[in-house]
Specification:
The protein contains three helices and 18 strands. By secondary structure, it is α+β, with helices and mostly antiparallel strands. It has two domains: about 120 residues, Immunoglobulin-like (Sandwich), CATH 2.60.40; about 130 residues, Immunoglobulin-like, CATH 2.60.40.
Length: about 325
């Protein structure tokens, strides 16, 4: 009897300790489970971030996660005139905001029938650029002077696009397209201003450079001379003048000199060039400059051809003058 009672008391005294151990075990299991869930979630987030570039690459994006989330804050705003005239230079400008680091910019224009643009190159000359082709030969960062060349009558519309390229990794971080720009032909512009004669505008000349190879043993001074080679008509009533400028001196003519050409129009029109490249002794540049001349009425319209409709009596007034720095 005494033994049975003693056993009962032992069992009752042990029960509280067993219950406390069970609760502690359950709490430990819960904590371990929570830690496992947090670790698993962190691992999933890391894998998601790592996989973002490949995911967005499938949709045409080529950027790191950081560039994807920051590039949307960068903006490029391009400004262009409402209308421009063929053969007349104008300024295209743009503003890039929220960029970080060094950038390069590329410009392109939308295709239109008969339309091209000339852009500046480091030598100070202009180069024709085809449509939908990115260009920026001088690494311009804010503005660029362009010359529209319209080979048809009337007017056409185009637009300009600018892209900002981050140089450190080659990522395109921002882009913008201008509003529509109307390009008027020279004849269209003359009509708009109620001018009775054809426009006296000259297209920027193309050039052929011939180097003499004389780049050492320089002394004395440079001497730039002009030689008019020819003036010939084109089928559409324009004329093409070819002339050369050569350094016949004994020293280098530094870059930055210009020339002016007095065209045989009525009234006369003076074409002013951009800054030209340096020329060593003996170097020569041949220029081909196109321009319009005033129209005249024919005595017998039946015999009027493309050439006789234009006044060619003052072609001998064509002259070129070199303007040294």
């Amino acid at each position: 009897m005494f033994t049975a009672v003693l056993t009962s008391h032992v069992i009752r005294d042990t029960l509280p300790y067993m219950t406390g151990f069970k609760d502690s075990l359950l709490r430990a299991i819960a904590v371990i489970g929570l830690i496992a869930i947090l670790v698993l979630g962190a691992w999933g987030i890391i894998q998601l971030v790592i996989g973002l570039p490949g995911f967005f690459a499938n949709f045409g994006f080529n950027a790191s996660p950081s560039s994807f989330f920051t590039s949307s804050t960068e903006k490029v705003a391009v400004t262009a005139p409402d209308s421009v005239t063929s053969d007349q230079p104008f300024t295209l400008s743009w503003i890039h905001t929220n960029g970080s680091g060094n950038y390069g910019y590329a410009i392109s224009y939308a295709c239109a029938t008969g339309l091209t643009f000339a852009a500046p190159v480091p030598t100070g000359q202009m180069q024709i650029v085809p449509c939908n082709t990115p260009f920026n030969f001088t690494n311009a960062t804010k503005t660029m002077q362009l010359i529209p060349v319209l080979h048809t009558k009337g007017s056409v519309t185009t637009s300009f696009s600018i892209i900002a390229n981050r140089l450190v990794d080659g990522t395109i971080t921002a882009s913008s397209t201008s509003k529509s720009v109307t390009v008027n032909s020279a004849a269209q512009a003359a009509t708009a201003t109620q001018t009775t004669a054809r426009s006296a505008t000259a297209a920027y000349p193309t050039t052929t450079y011939t180097a003499s190879g004389h780049t050492s043993n320089l002394y004395g001074s440079a001497a730039l001379v002009v030689h008019v080679i020819s003036i010939t008509p084109t089928i559409d009533g324009r004329y093409v003048a070819r002339f050369s400028i050569q350094n016949i001196g004994t020293n280098l003519a530094p870059a930055g000199w210009t020339f002016s050409a007095v065209l045989p129009t009525n009234p006369t029109y003076t074409f002013l060039s951009h800054a030209q490249q340096k020329m060593y002794p003996g170097d020569e540049i041949v220029y081909t400059l196109g321009f319009n001349i005033p129209a005249t009425s024919c005595a017998n319209p039946y015999y009027c051809d493309a050439y006789s409709r234009y006044d060619t009596t003052n072609l001998n007034t064509f002259s070129v003058t070199v303007n040294a720095r």
